[in-house]
Amino acid sequence: LDDQPVRTPGKRTLVVPNRALAEALSAEWNAQSDAVEPRVMPLTRHANSAVDGVILRRAEVIEEVVRYGATDLVCYRATDPPELIERQITGWHPLVEWIASEFEIRLKIVSSVLPVAQSQATIDAFHIAVSAFDDFPLTGLHAAAAACGSLVIALGLAHGHLNAEVAWSLSQLDESYHIERWGEDAEAIDRRSRLLTDIEIASRFMVLGGVGE
Whose C-alpha in 9, 87, 167, 203 is 20 to 30 A from the C-alpha of 28? Predict the structure, then answer.
């Protein structure tokens, strides 16, 4: 930037792991005018978070991500109406089977909103799965889990088992059902749109950051 290395908000040099991500960040910077608008530079924001946060406190971030799995959205099923129960089974059960097959993560499923304690073996397996991510993909995984409210969905997204739109749809399954019955207000429309964008950006950042390499 002006012939100087780009700095993060924490005053560290913004160095990324590969050329593809560097070029994507460069495109965000080149699209700026005289006034830099961070809100339209989401990949740069994630990169800054990786450099200023994840790299420095990696173990803590891993624990934060694993906590999404400990209370994962897909583990909590409705008791009624039957149509919603069927949607949850159809949408979430294949993910429960996939996570068990792919990572040996076996989840406890309950028909309740009350917290269920997952086994220590399950938490340990989540920890292994999350720890396999390098710092930049881990940053994206953290963002995806937060946007989805589900580490299972975020892992499916990271490993190419789901695309961003399907991940969003699965994370919004309950809300979408209630909207069909009762309608949607402008605030909900905006919030859901922002969550879809967040998931899309997190997915792209994980790919550019080298997930699976």
Answer: 167
